[in-house]
Structure to design on (360 residues):
């Protein structure tokens, strides 16, 4: 597409800051993308995230509800959600791993979780859905399998992913939408290399390393990313899918990864786990019952500017759905704020010092 530009601004060893422009909207990397699965984040009005440059929507769920007929009436997801910033949509490949499904040569047979009917997500359908959603970044349909699956199964998965990626590349014709390839291969370095080179041969706008953050150890994840990054071009975005904890992200930023997404900050919030400088504490603990401090004194979010730990704990215990808004907002803003501080540390060539200050 012609509406995509990436410019490297700074490097600190392998960690990097890029200025990215997509459809006239700018953002800096490294970046965390909040997940708005069905076009929303549970309990949190999106206008409170108007400083978030990009959020993620879910192709599988939006296809089923509200459906393409509805989205089409709004000419895409931006107007439907009243969201002016960027949107990335996944392809449905993750749901092929996370919910009951059956793999076919030409796609993934799904059961509709809402009414029990059956449909097949193909590379063509995934591209059609994402084109109708009119997201700024679309992902190819990939074959995601367990990270510890056999070598033969992982080999089959990268072959399927390449075949589907080729089909998606040929079909995709949305001129305002970037298209990203996805590297698979589990914990097998040779398969990761093969998959990366396959994706590069199709010349995508960016490249994701998929099949991680699904049960492997952090050491295994680091080893695979360290091996895979050198095969990915420096003038394209690098994205590790499904990762959102601070320690995990900073380990991969150190290896040259630019983009992340995860439901983790919002899910933690609904359980009363509060992120603060890369750590988290449990607000349900009785020691916070009369604590007049904010969740984090250095946090710029609406919650921290207005409410005490004591009050928020009271809501969490007695009016839990009311607390979700405040705590979810804090956790997402806190995560994004740490990523901004990481950007600054790379710009100032003191990434390692900043990493040490987090005491992860």
């Amino acid at each position: 597409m012609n509406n995509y530009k990436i410019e490297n601004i700074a490097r600190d060893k392998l960690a990097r800051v890029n200025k990215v422009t997509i459809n006239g909207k700018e953002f800096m990397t490294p970046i965390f993308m909040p997940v708005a699965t069905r076009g929303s984040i549970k309990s949190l009005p999106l206008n409170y995230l108007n400083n978030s440059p990009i959020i993620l929507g879910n192709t599988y769920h939006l296809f089923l509800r509200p459906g393409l007929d509805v989205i089409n009436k709004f000419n895409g997801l931006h107007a439907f959600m009243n969201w002016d910033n960027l949107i990335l949509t996944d392809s449905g490949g993750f749901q092929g791993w996370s919910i009951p499904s059956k793999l076919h040569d030409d796609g993934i047979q799904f059961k509709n979780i809402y009414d029990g009917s059956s449909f097949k997500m193909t590379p063509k359908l995934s591209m059609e859905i994402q084109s109708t959603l009119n997201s700024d970044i679309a992902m190819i349909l990939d074959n995601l399998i367990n990270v510890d699956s056999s070598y033969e199964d992982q080999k089959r998965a990268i072959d399927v992913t390449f075949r589907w990626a080729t089909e998606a590349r040929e079909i995709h014709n949305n001129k305002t939408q970037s298209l990203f390839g996805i590297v698979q291969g589990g914990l097998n370095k040779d398969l990761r290399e093969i998959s990366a080179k396959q994706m590069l041969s199709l010349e995508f706008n960016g490249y994701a390393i998929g099949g991680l953050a699904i049960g492997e150890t952090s050491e295994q994840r680091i080893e695979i990313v360290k091996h895979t990054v050198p095969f990915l071009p420096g003038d394209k975005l690098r994205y590790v899918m499904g990762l959102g904890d601070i320690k995990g992200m900073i380990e991969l930023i150190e290896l040259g990864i630019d983009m992340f997404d995860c439901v983790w900050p919002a899910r933690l919030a609904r359980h009363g786990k509060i992120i603060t400088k890369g750590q988290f504490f449990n607000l349900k603990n009785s020691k916070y019952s009369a604590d007049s401090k904010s969740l984090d004194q250095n946090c710029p979010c609406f919650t921290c500017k207005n409410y005490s730990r004591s009050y928020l704990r009271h809501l969490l215990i007695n009016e839990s759905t009311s607390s979700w808004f405040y705590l979810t907002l804090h956790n997402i803003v806190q995560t994004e704020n740490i990523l901004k501080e990481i950007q600054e540390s790379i710009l100032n060539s003191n990434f390692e010092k900043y990493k040490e200050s987090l005491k992860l």
About this structure: Residues 246 and 278 are 5 Å apart (CA to CA).
